[in-house]
Design goal:
Helices cover 11% and strands 40% of the residues. The chain is mainly beta.
């Protein structure tokens, strides 16, 4: 029986029906506690006693609760026989034919949501237009996970939905061949259904039709879809065809790759995958309308007035690969890959895909950067850990590595046999140096580079100049952003190149003719600027992932990596990692989080470039925390009973705020002008906040008043009894820990014993009552930072075992003694972009 207006389910008052389907009835309802309208879905009474239907209903609640993505409907609450989600102002994606441009925009958003679900181990299995809403402002929302298949061990311990062999699940017309057969399905089944939806958006009709369900399923199994209209670009038709391959192994193998292909396609050129077969996709410089960045006509070595376009090819080779460097003859590509947990130097031949590992040291630190000798016979690379360890070389054919220079990194070979390297100076700056191996002569140059940037130096043809992503020494007043420079190696003078304002430049490359400097940056993207600096930088490729390294070929082709490192919030224990949530933003922020006594987790969520704090309930999913239109963001910490301290306002204009957890309102604001707050902790009584900002630790009265400087420091945490702080000091590439009593006594350094070294990022509550500090640990035998623990009394450091491979940061204790942290997995592949002229 349908519910009538005024019916109450818990705190929710039914307002009107919204729709119904086999897996439930949906109503518009009013949350009487928070005064907002929501969507409430109930299991119909006539099937409420069916155990399998109830299992699927509960499965949907748990599956959606595990996801946190702007293209997936957010879940707010779960009750007895109902779930509550955000109310989306939009219409189902059905019935209308769209232009290729609009269809690609919609499809790219769907792919992004699917990628988040698949990363969380969730296969939707009922993807269709009725389960996708398009809001009035053009945003896609995927909903109805009632048939979701959840991988064992994912999403808070939820196990995989049990489906008997031969059971057909899904909606006729949008099933994959394996669903029609009742076979085992995985995320690639969703990719087939996605292809059917994209086909319908472009053609205005279904890909497979028939008078009966049997005829439709037979067509899915045995027939090819009719050709799309000629008005659809060839590349888009190829993407659809690749999604609709009958065999899962022949489709796109991930929604991430599918989304990347769509994002690069545009509306006037061809596109397809290059993973399983040597297929390509293209897009012109003028085709990407509405994107955050656009191409400039004539960019990147194409001097003719013809409009440039690009062909993109994902290269074969190791599963993980980054930092491509092309040999001087252009035939061999050097790269970095993982062997076990350690990074190594590898080479591949782009034309054949054959590859081999050249280095095999497991205990000398991680490889960070590589470059070729000018004759192409050797590859220079560095090994780094807590501090720069040294630069080595190895034959391009393999063999025993040779140590070239200790305590240096970022090698770049010059024609005379010398090297540009980076070394720590007396001020703990990573300064560019020129080193002559034959004479051991070292010359300091007037630029410093960023420790976190893996490829900041590149030599121009001829060896007279270098492109450097850096800052001058001494720094310019107010200089804080890493920018591109051209360094004259004879005079030592550096001149800045124009770059977009507020852009943090990353990897750098130089074209083979020396006319252009290319660089990546944050926010993600790639840019090209004339080496003369006489005109502005131009957006080059609309890359949405991070770029660690890139290189140029003589024909203008560009090799670059696509690196994806999503922030994942994990609970650790018994050697296993349980995913709590995945951030909707890029991974460079490594946000703090707070765990409340009721086990809710407070974390950042970024939508449309705006940050807001959300409360993540292990059983109910994420919900907005504070009733404000302003941006709210981490760091965050409890500030007394029922109160939370956090940041409010846009970047650069933030204040510290105190908010009530009971009312969701801001009760106090604390102006703070000492710099960007990177960590925040609170005294047990909530009267004092301890903030790290401007390379110092500050005590901020929670009731208001001037901040008091305690000491130098990069991060700080307080012990549970409020007796002392643990302060992290980053000195160059070294990280040191200090125990600072709050009763006025002098502090002392915590000398960490053994070969493990702490990472600078502290969680909100990393110190236990018995003096154990949770912190990420670096070691010489792993590229990743492991979760670890340091005994503050003895300095002994130990790893925490886990089955999740990634870098760990912001580790924190919960009130019940559990361990949580933010982890960054590593996904990376290398692509070749070739310019073409139409």
């Amino acid at each position: 029986m349908a519910l009538t207006a005024g019916t109450r389910l818990g705190p929710y008052e039914i307002l009107a029906p919204l729709g119904a389907g086999g897996m439930g009835e949906v109503y518009r309802a009013r949350d009487t506690r928070l005064g907002r309208d929501v969507a409430l879905k109930i299991l119909p009474a006539e099937v409420a006693d069916d155990p399998s239907r109830r299992q699927r209903f509960e499965q949907e609640a748990r599956a959606v609760a595990a996801l946190n993505h702007p293209n997936i409907v957010a879940i707010y609450d779960v009750g007895e026989g109902y779930i509550v989600t955000e109310l989306v102002d939009g219409e189902p994606l059905r019935g209308a034919k769209h232009s290729p441009r609009k269809a690609i925009d919609i499809a790219t958003q769907i792919a992004a949501g699917l990628a988040a679900a698949h990363d969380a181990g969730i296969t939707h299995r009922d993807l269709k237009p009725d389960n996708i809403l398009l809001t009035r402002d053009g945003r896609v929302k995927i909903l109805d996970f009632g048939l979701a298949k959840v991988a064992a061990g994912k999403t808070g311990g939820v196990t995989e939905t049990v489906t008997e062999p031969g059971t057909v699940m899904g909606t006729v017309g949008y099933m994959s061949p394996e669903q029609v057969r009742g076979s085992v399905t995985d995320h690639r089944s969703d990719i087939f259904s996605f292809g059917l939806i994209l086909y319908e958006l472009l053609a205005g009709r279904r890909a497979f039709s028939g008078d009966t369900s049997v005829e439709i399923m037979t067509a899915i199994l045995k027939q090819d879809a009719a050709d799309l209209p000629e008005t659809v670009p060839a590349g888009v038709r190829q993407i659809v065809a690749h999604c609709l391959e009958k065999e899962p192994a022949n489709r796109f193998q991930s929604a991430k790759d599918l989304g990347f292909a769509l994002a690069q396609t545009g509306t006037q050129t061809g596109a397809s995958s290059a993973i399983a077969k040597p297929r390509h996709w293209k897009w012109p410089a003028t085709a990407v309308a509405g994107a955050a960045v656009a191409f400039a006509a004539g960019a990147f070595l194409l001097r003719a007035p013809a409009v440039p376009s690009w062909t993109a090819l994902r290269l074969g080779g190791p599963e993980l690969a980054w930092a491509p460097r092309l040999s001087p003859d252009g035939r061999t590509l050097a790269m970095i890959t993982l062997v076990g947990e350690q990074s190594q130097v590898a080479v591949t031949h782009p034309e054949t895909g054959d590859w081999s590992i050249l280095t095999h040291e497991l205990d000398r630190g991680s490889t960070n950067t590589l470059s070729w000798s000018l004759d192409g016979n050797r590859i220079y690379y560095d090994r780094v850990n807590d501090v720069p360890v040294g630069i080595y070389s190895v034959s391009a054919l393999g063999g025993e590595p040779r140590l070239v220079l200790e305590n240096a990194e970022f090698p770049e070979a010059l024609p005379d046999g010398s090297l540009l390297v980076a070394r720590l100076n007396s001020r703990s700056e990573l300064q560019v140096n020129r080193y002559w191996p034959g004479t051991e002569k070292i010359e300091e140059l007037a630029l410093q580079v960023n420790f976190a940037n893996p490829h900041p130096i590149r030599i121009f043809p001829g060896g007279r100049e270098a492109a450097v992503i850096g800052q001058p020494i001494p720094p310019s007043q107010g200089q804080s952003i890493w920018r591109p420079y051209v360094l004259d190696l004879a005079s030592g003078r550096a001149r800045p190149l124009p770059a977009p304002k507020e852009l943090e430049a990353g990897a750098v490359a130089v074209t083979r003719d020396g006319r252009e400097v290319l660089f990546s940056g944050t926010p993600p993207g790639t840019w090209s600027v004339p080496a003369t600096g006489r005109s502005a930088a131009r957006a080059l490729l609309p890359i949405t992932s991070s770029v660690f390294g890139m290189d140029c070929a003589a024909d203008g082709s560009l090799f670059l990596d696509q690196v994806d490192r999503p922030e994942e919030l994990l609970r650790l224990g018994e050697g296993r990692a349980q995913r709590i949530a995945v951030s909707s933003q890029s991974a460079t922020a490594i946000n703090q989080f707070e765990v409340l006594p009721d086990r809710r987790v407070i974390w950042d969520q970024v939508i449309a470039g705006r940050s807001r704090l959300v409360s993540i309930d292990p059983a109910k999913g994420a919900a907005p925390l504070f009733d404000t239109t302003e941006q709210t963001s981490t760091p965050v910490t409890r500030a007394g009973a029922g109160l939370l301290a956090f940041l409010v306002g846009p970047p650069g204009k933030q204040e510290i705020a105190i908010g009530s957890l009971a009312t969701g309102r801001i009760v106090r604001r604390l102006p703070f002008d000492k710099g960007e707050v990177s960590t925040m902790a609170s005294s047990p009584d909530g009267k004092t906040l301890y903030c790290a900002a401007g390379h110092a630790i500050w005590a901020v009265p929670a009731a208001g008043g001037a901040p008091v400087r305690i000491r130098d420091g990069s991060a700080a945490a307080i012990d549970p009894d409020g007796r002392y702080l643990v302060v992290v000091m980053v000195e160059g590439a070294s990280t040191r820990l200090y125990k600072v009593p709050l009763d006025g006594d002098a502090g002392q350094e915590i000398v960490v014993r053994g070969e493990l070294r702490p990472v600078q990022y502290l969680g909100t509550r990393p110190i236990s009552r018995d003096g154990r500090l949770l912190i990420g640990l670096a070691s010489a035998d792993s590229w990743f930072y492991h979760p670890g623990m340091i005994d503050l009394a003895t300095g002994k450091a130990t790893r925490i075992p886990t089955d999740f491979q990634g870098d760990y940061f912001r580790l924190s204790w919960t009130d019940d003694g559990q361990t949580m942290g933010v982890a960054l997995p590593m996904r990376s592949s290398i692509w070749k972009f070739t310019p073409e002229t139409r």
